[in-house]
Write a structure and sequence with these properties.
Layout: H1 7-30, H2 37-40, H3 59-88, H4 92-119
């Protein structure tokens, strides 16, 4: 490969970096900056905040978030991919293999969910 093959990529990278830099610098100089006590306060959806802003949350919140992300990604990307194999393969063997792989993957996720549920990790206290 020659250096001229990567010239377009290099130009796009340089233009992208320059555009971001110019935008950040321009926004720094042209923005209104008038801090007041009201503007510097923590925003709590229109409610007046009380107590310290730094609180420790239970790990249960993060576990719920991780479980949601796992199943959301699985539902959003894996099933359409497996169903798409039906249209792309000349023989149906590859499509069946892809769907079987996805069923096994989803089964492992469900087993993990059942295990966490039985251990009581998903119960609010």
């Amino acid at each position: 490969m020659l250096a001229k093959d990567f010239l377009a990529v290099g130009i796009f990278i340089v233009v992208g970096i320059v555009f971001v830099a110019i935008t950040l610098i321009a926004s720094y100089f042209f923005r209104p900056y008038k801090p007041t006590g009201e503007k510097l306060r923590t925003y709590e959806c229109g409610e007046i905040p009380f107590g310290p802003a730094w609180l420790q949350f239970r790990v249960g919140y993060y576990i719920y978030a991780l479980i949601f992300l796992i199943f959301d990604v699985e539902a959003a990307f894996i099933f359409p991919w497996a169903a798409g194999l039906l249209g792309f393969s000349r023989t149906k063997a590859l499509a069946v293999l892809g769907i079987v792989d996805m069923v096994i993957f989803v089964g492992v996720l469900v087993l993990g969910l059942v295990y966490a549920w039985k251990k009581g990790v998903l119960e609010w206290k």
